[in-house]
Amino acid sequence: MVDVSRERFEELVAEALDGIPEQFTKAMRNVAVFVEDVAPDPHLLGLYVGIPLTERTTSYAGVLPDRIMIYRPTICAYCHTEAQVIAEVRKTVVHEVAHHFGIDDDRLHELGY
């Protein structure tokens, strides 16, 4: 386990989001990303909650933003160095953003996420 401060962890999440190609970040709609200090499951690294872009219809309006939660304690518990945390944060952020675009877990696992 490595202890990464919340401030540093938030920086890593922001850097991971900045590393996503611009054509994807421009296409993201009504989604917010949060760093959480408590995970609902001790094995959960991240979670997407919302309606993926591929499932939105013309009646999609007036809804709260989708949420992507990145769980700091779980990621830190799996990692032994900050370099591992950086890699896991990036992988988890990409994984959860992919859910926003409608990509399911089976396809993500095929792609290495």
Written description of the protein model:
Helices cover 45% and strands 14% of the residues. The chain has 113 residues and is α+β, with helices and mostly antiparallel strands. Strands 1-3-2 form a three-stranded mixed β-sheet. The chain is globular and about 45 Å long. 24% of the residues are buried.
Summarize the structure.
With 113 residues, this protein is an alpha+beta fold. 45% of the residues lie in helices and 14% in strands.
List the helices and strands and how they pair.
Layout: H1 6-18, H2 22-27, E1 31-36, E2 46-49, E3 66-71, H3 72-78, H4 82-100, H5 105-110
Parallel strand pairs: 1-3
Antiparallel strand pairs: 2-3
Helix pairs in contact: 1-4
Mean pLDDT: 95
Proportion of residues in helical segments:
40-55%
Looking at how many chains there are and whether they match, the oligomeric state comes to single chain
Number of strands: 3
Q: What are the segments in which pLDDT stays under 50 over at least 5 consecutive residues?
A: none
Distance between the termini: 21 Å
Overall outline: globular
Strand order of the largest sheet: 1-3-2
Helix and strand pattern: HHEEEHHH
- The percentage of residues in β strands lies in 5-15%
Largest sheet: 3 strands, mixed
Radius of gyration: 14 Å
Structural class: alpha+beta
What is the number of helices?
5
